[in-house]
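Let's practice the habit of predicting before peeking. Look at the sequence and jot down your guess about where helices and strands might fall. Then scroll down.
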Amino acid sequence: MKKTTLFFAALVVVTVLSACARGGSATQPTPSWQESLKKGATAPYHSVIAQDPTYQKVLGLNILLYPAPIDDPKIGAFGKSDWKLDASDFVQAMTKAFAGKQMGDKAVYEPVVSALQNDPFVAEVRDTIYDGQPVQVGWIYGNTNGLDLLEYNDAAVTLIPANDIVVFFGQKSKLDTQTWSYNTSDTTAFYAPAKSVIALLSDTMHSSPVRVHKATGQLTAVITPAGVGIDRATPGQGMDQALVAKERWVFALPDAGAGYYVGLKGQKILIEPAD
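Done guessing? Here is the structure:
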């Protein structure tokens, strides 16, 4: 019964997406998703991201979770996607700087990557998203397969993936202040293609990005106001049980490892990869 329900659910989604794809002109070339979104294509079933074969495959494999494309209007509850910023050259520079590092199954976060600090794109993000305030750029990488932790920074965070990713967002207002825990069911999953620029609100909690392709894993730049996450901090009471560094709180499932505060409740949500 469950398999039959999944089959028909997947069939409905594929039918809707295929119908949207047929709505375009057969004689006009399809623009890149970046160019399309710059022109304002934001409807989730008509955007180029929604029609992208990789997204459709990820959606079909994870149909019960139903990760939305990052241009879905509901991203507004957590931040926005900035399609006017072209991260192509920056992603190329980040990939080059990362060459030679080992990609393991657990996410590794480095708050500052000196090789990227003076990249012109970082200055563009600083001026566009942070109103000229000093920023730092780091990265997070790994062949992570699902939601096992949520991080809160009390600051605006900008994510720029070098690979296609799925990322989970949550609102701090849903943090249980009686148990100082957060339920995985209160998160929302989004699919973001490589070179997206995702500017999160300061009250948004976010997961480590999850790989879409096992063959590559995921590498994502993390831009924050200067000083976030650098100086280690001593955990305290209440929410500060999850404090690991300046303006960095991490709520994790019991098997997440790394000694993080076990403040994430519910099931680990796995993402079936496209490969």
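How did you do? The longest helix spans residues 2-22.
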